[in-house]
User: What shape does this take?
Amino acid sequence: MKTVILLLLTLTGSLFAREIIVDQKDKTFIPGTLNVKVGDTITFKNSDPFSHNAYTDDEDNEFDIGMQATGTTKSVKIKKEGEFNIECAIHPNMLIKVKVTK
Ligand SMILES: [Cu+2]
Assistant: This one.
């Protein structure tokens, strides 16, 4: 019975998990602020004619998607609640403020 309940919780979680698309255009993350939930996926889409990056040093949600070429997408899953910034290692002015709730 316990297994069934756990399975249901897992399925329900994935049903409500969202994919949030962030565009990288004119050296800007669009949108520049995000309100997401644990389990959501952020997908970065590079619409500029040059490479971008996205990373965070936040301890709970640390990631670095590496070099992201024009026209490609890369996704990261949000693991823990909190607040953090996402930046581009190539263009220091690019910034997203992220708030994660349960
Ligand atoms: Cu960039």
